[in-house]
Amino acid sequence: MISRVIPRVIPYGRQDIRGEDMAAVAAVLHSDWLTQGPAVPRFEEAVAARCGARHAVAANSATSALHLACMSLDLGPGDHLWTTPNTFVASANCGRYCGATVDFVDIDRDSLNLDPAALAAKLERAGKAGKLPKVVVAVDFAGQSCDMAAIRALADRYGFRVIEDASHAIGGRYQARPIGAGRYADITVFSFHPVKIITTGEGGMALCNDAALADHMARLRSHGICRDAAIQAAEGPWYYEQTELGFNYRMTDMQAALGLSQLARLDEYVAARRRLADRYDHLLAGLPLRTPWRDLQADSAWHLYVIRLEDAVLAKPGRRAVFEHLRAAGIGVNVHYIPVHLQPDYRRLGFARGDYPVAEDYYARTITLPLHPGLSDADQDRVVAELREALA
Question: Which pTM value belongs to this model?
Fold first, then answer.
C-alpha cells in the first residue's frame, strides 16, 4: 500500500509567540492579579501612546469594542448604521446589537474599502428621505486605511459619527499619522485576534480623543458600574452603583501582558509583512490576476494579501478549482470576505444579490494568500509555484 504524502500546511495567518511573551504572561500568573489588575491600563496607555490617541479602552474582542463604540455614541432603535459589505459580519452586527437599522455602501474598485463617492450619493438620497445614518463604520480592509478625510468631510456635512473599524490595521499609517490617532474618526477599533498584526489571544481596543466617550465605554464594558470616589464618600470604599445596563467585556491581565509584549514588536511585524507583500507583487507579475492596490497617502499594515483573478481564470479553471488546488497542496488560502448582505441572516432583512455589485464582483474573484511574519521566502516561493500550476 502506497501512503500519500500530505504536504505541510502553510496557514494564511499565524501568531508569533516568543519567550518574552510567555514570560510576560507567566509573570501575571505569579502575581496577585489575573483579571482586573495593572496590566490592562498599562496596555491601554501603551497603545494610545503608540497611535497618538488620548484614550484607549481594552475589551475582550474587537466585536465587543465595536459594540461599546456604538453604545457610547448613543446608537439605538430608530437610528441607522451604515458600513461596507466587504468586511466580517461584526462591523454590521454591532449596529443591530443596539437595535439600529443596518445598511451598506458599496466599495471602491481599487482600495476595496467603502467608496466615498458612493457614500456621498447615498447620503444625498437618504437626506431627502429623512433617513440619514447616525453612525458610519468605515473598515480598513486588509490593513489599508479608508479615505478617512473624505469620510470625515461627509460626516461634518451630514452630521453622522464615524467609527473606524481598524481591526486589520494597527501599525498602519494614513497621511503620515498612525491609524488610531483619531484625526478623522470619533472612535477607532483594533483587533488582537491571533491572525492579526499583534495578538492577545482574543481581544480588542477602542481608541478616541474624547474623555467622555472613553469613560462611557469603560463603564459599559464592566456592567455599567461606577466606583468613583465621589459616590463612595457617603457609603464607604466598597460602594458602587450600576448607572446603566452594561456588559462584561473586560480584557484580562493575562491578555494585556501578552499584548504589551507583542506591541514592542509591532514595527518589526509590519515591516516583515510589507517586505513579503512587495515580494508577492514581484513574484506574481505577469500572472492573470490583480495584486493589491497601493495608496500613495497611506501605508498598509498588510494584515491580508488578496489577489483578484481575471475573467479568463474565472471562466476556466474557475476560482473554486484554483482555491481547491491550493488547499490540496497545503497552501492555507482563504477568502475575505463573503459580502455581509449575502449572509442568510441579512437576506432575511431584505438584502439581495445585486444590491452592491462592486463588492459582489470582488468576492467572486478573490483569494487571500498566506501572509504573516513567520512566512519564509521558501514558503512564499512554494505558494506562488502552486498558484502558477493552478492557473495553468
Answer: 0.96
Annotated catalytic residue: which of 128, 131, 134, 196? Answer: 196
Per-residue pLDDT, 1: 46
Residue 347 and residue 209 in one domain = no
Alpha-carbon span 88 to 93, nearest angstrom: 9
| 104 and 244 co-located in one domain | yes
Q: H/E element holding 382?
A: helix 377-391
| Cα–Cα distance measured from residue 222 to residue 15, given in angstroms and rounded to the nearest whole number | 28
- Taking alpha carbons only, the member of 103, 116, 112 closest to residue 148 is 116
Mapping DSSP onto H, E and C, the string for 305-341 reads: EEEEECHHHHHCCCHHHHHHHHHHCCEECECCCCCHH
d(C-alpha 211, C-alpha 149), whole Å: 23
pLDDT tens for 344-383 read 999 999 999 999 999 999 999 999 999 999 999 999 999 9
Domain end among 235, 263, 291? 263
CA distance 335 to 368: 5
Sign of the Cα pseudo-torsion (169, 173, 177, 183, in order): negative
**Residue written as grid cell 456592567:** 223
Q: Are 369 and 49 in contact (CB under 8 A)?
A: no
Same domain, 117 and 146: yes
Do the beta carbons of residue 353 and residue 384 sit within 8 Å?
Answer: no
Into how many domains does the chain fold?
2
Is 196 a catalytic site residue?
yes
